[in-house]
Amino acid sequence: MGAGRLAHWGRHLARLEPADPDELGRAAEGHYDQILVSAMAEELPERLVAQLAEDGRLVSPVAGQLWTVQRGGGDIEIRRSRAYAFVPLMGP
Q: How many angstroms separate the Cα of 61 from the Cα of each of 1, 20, 70?
């Protein structure tokens, strides 16, 4: 369903990947330009931050807020927004 919507809207550079219950993200495949997490983490998922490319961005609900994490120049910048509710993030 999601892949069909991406194709319909011409988002050919985006892809959906199924979760692996033994791994958070897909470290072997990547440094990613963007990572979108749709489940609440108790703390910033460093395993996902490590998978960001230079100038990459991670958007994730963390501890009740939506966080945007930007990697650039060897630094990590975090912007926190207002409170949100999400299902819990499960990981290894």
A: 23, 19, 14
User: How far apart (Å, rounded) are the C-alpha atoms in residues 34 and 78?
Assistant: 14
Across the chain, which has 92 residues, the per-10-residue mean pLDDT values are 78 74 85 90 93 95 94 93 80 68
pTM of structure: 0.77
DSSP track, 18-84:
---TT-SS-GGG--EEEEE--SBBSS--HHHHTTEEEEEEEEEEETTEEEEEEEETTEEEEEEEEE-
Element (H, E) at 2: helix 2-8
